[in-house]
Structure formats: structure tokens, C-alpha cells
Amino acid sequence: MSTLRRSILSVPGHRVSMHEKATACAADIIMLDLEDSCPPAEKVQARETIVHSIQNLDWQGKTLCVRINDLAGPFALQDVLSLIPEIGNQIETLVVPKVESAAQMHYLDHLLTALNCEVGIEPIIESAKALRDAPEIAGATSRNRCLVFGIADYSASINMPLSSISGHGENDGIYPGDPLHFVYSRLILCGKADGLKVIDAPYGNFRDPEGLKISAARSRALGFDGKWCIHPAQIEAVNAAFSPTPEEIERAEQVLSAFKQALSEGRGAAAIGDSMIDQASVRMAEDVMARAKTAK
Ligand code: GLV
Ligand code: MG
Hints:
Layout (H helix, E strand, L loop, with lengths): L6 E6 L3 H7 L6 E5 L9 H14 L6 E5 L8 H12 L5 E4 L5 H13 L5 E6 L2 H5 L1 H5 L7 E4 L1 H7 L23 H13 L3 E4 L8 H14 L3 E4 L5 H7 L4 H19 L5 E3 L2 E3 L1 H16 L2
Parallel strand pairs: 1-2, 1-8, 2-3, 3-4, 4-5, 5-6, 6-7, 7-8
Antiparallel strand pairs: 9-10
């Protein structure tokens, strides 16, 4: 069964007190971060801190992953060599920032194979080059579990001004529509074409629950499977946005039963109220029911 990935809480790798708090939260996935939320002076010690937290805290059955540093930089190789022998079988994935090519994915894949570790990989797409080469990156290895959108680094890479770590909720009206719409759709297309989940960037303003709700609903409407959270206060709304509502479940049940009835009468389509449904509606309804089963 595939892991639920509605909410992914990003937690700085060097902050033990935040690890402790995270054990009790409702996020589907906890991501301990060695990259941008961990200052350079803390990175070496943070590897040990993460290993210690993963081995010793009671994570209450949560799925864990670790974001290493970028593969082209000075830290990533030692991140992998320090973490994998110790906790490689306790984490679901390595989250890999600033992936620039399929060749980098092959390199990491071979390294993990040499370490005899089956851990998955989550490449973050966060530059113009990565977005251009997203199909090759998505298809580079069977270790890939999902594509993640890194909104802040992507915006920096194309010189798009942002005022926080998230462009979500920051459109000031100068551009009609969402300036990142193409990016979301391309990522979703490239990820889904390879059977991967696609995860949206966080909503930057953690004191704006209304904005978060709208942002998460938009992500879901486009086909994203989940969203990063940068604060525990965001988890509940994000889980809700990516779980089917009682109305959606009721509608899915209606679709399945109306279509079954239609088939038994030799018809390939049916009407529910004023809407026609067919096999494609059945596939969507089955997806709703499958998500309803896995959502807590
Ligand atoms: C995440 O890494 C981002 O750059 O938004
Ligand atoms: Mg980034």
C-alpha cells in the first residue's frame, strides 16, 4: 500500500526539541532537514542529532524521511554515508534538494545500492533546469516516490520576486491568475506520467489559516497529492484538504452504484440528476473511495 503523503512536516535537523514535538503531531510524514533550515555551522552535528532522534524517540508509527544537502555541494555525500548505515531502514525516503539532472539521480541510486539500502528518493524540483528536465528526473530511478515542488528556490532561479519562503498567497494582482500555474501543471504531468505522487510547496504565512485553506484546496484541485507544512499548526487543514469530504464520498458511492445499474441494463453511461457519468467517472469515484480508506 502506498504511503499517505497529505502533509509533510519539515523540521530542522539540529533542533531536538522540535523533533520531540513532531512525534506527537498529526502529519503523515515528518521530514528532518539537513538542508536550508539547518545552518551551515550545525550541519555536521545535525547528522548525529537526526540519527539519535530517529533511533531513540517514539515516533508513534509515523513515516520518516530526511532531506539531505544538494548533491553538487560539499555536504551531501557525507550526509548519505553518515545516515544510511545507521537509519537507512527506518526512513522511507531521502528528500534530495536542488536536483539538476537525471545523472545526479543515477549517482545517488548507485550509491544507495552500494550501501545495500532500499530507501526511496524524493527529488525536489526547484530550478528552471530541473523543471525543463523533470521528465528525465522523474523517470531516472525506481526509487523515486514523488516529485516535490521547491517554490522558493524555483522562484529565485527564474528571478521571480517573493517576500517569504512561499509564493503561495503572495500574488499581488499584477499578474492575472496564478503566475506559477504552468509550473504546478508541468510538475503534476511529469510526476503522474511516471506513477509518482506530486507534493506542493508549503504556504509561507503560518498565521493565515484562511489563506492556507485556499492554497491547499487549489493544490488539491490541480492534482497534487499533498503539501509541505512549515508549522504544526498547518497540518490539520492540509490533511483535510487532501482527504475526501463526506459529500465527495457520498457522491462517489452514488456514481458507483448508478454505473453498476447502467451496466446491468446494457448502458455505458448513466445520469445522476443533471450530470452524465461514464467509465471515467467510475475511475474518479474509485480514487475517492481508495483515498477515503487510507485517510485517517
Ligand atoms: C523548498 O526547498 C523551496 O525552495 O521552496
Ligand atoms: Mg529549496
